[in-house]
Amino acid sequence: MFNLNGEVVGVNTAIISPSGGSIGIGFAVPSNSAVAVIDQLRQFGETRRGWLGVRIQQVTDDIAESLNITPPRGALVAGVDDKGPAKPAGIEPGDVVVSFDGHDIKEMHDLPRVVADTPVGKVVDVVVIRKGKQETHKVTVGRLQDTEKVAEASAKQEAPPDKSVVQKTLGLELSQLSDEQRRKFKIKSGVNGVLVTGVDSSVAAADPDKRLAPGDVIIEVQYQAVASPADMQKRVDALKGQGKKIAVLLVSNGNGDTRFVALNLQ
Known about the structure:
By secondary structure, the chain is α+β, with helices and mostly antiparallel strands. It has five helices and 18 strands. The chain is elongated, with a radius of gyration of 22 Å.
């Protein structure tokens, strides 16, 4: 794609074609983006994209409120790859990335794009908000391989409710995590916490956006570890006593992939 001065301003990629022919509407990659790819092809014979080694999710209004982040912004770190660059740099689940190499991260989708465009091996400043305080971490950007990707935390498929329920809190049926339940829900040995065996469809916890389902394991409630339904109830009662309206849960699926879920305490 050229402008009237003969300068390349984009690389055509697709057209809208309802009937199989062109109707005059097309799409193009901006030339600034294409230049970086061309330079990599010239230098390496292939494209190389930066890698941070985290799984991220959107900072919702509820999560922002619980973290005292106003206005809501950034990318919430739901998990950190043990072999990724973020791990040795000290980035942890629960951190909210608000800046990467001088680029503001306004929402979750900004982070993968900025990281991918960063040269492999570059040492960058990553600014995070951790428990209400801003911190800066030095990260050496890794290389994204085909088997690795920076992604959103994935939802878990629902499983049949477990009958060994011992307690119900916030519309969740909870149980101690036993060896039998590990086998039933295919939960790895390294995953520990409180097992969700049922979700009440009449409460906010059952909202699909909350993504809680039988077989999930609640690891933390408002950044404190819980090991039993009684632990979770005590933590919820304490938060209510402090006047909190929202509790942020660190939740794991059976494979150990973690994510954050904000639940209404009212």
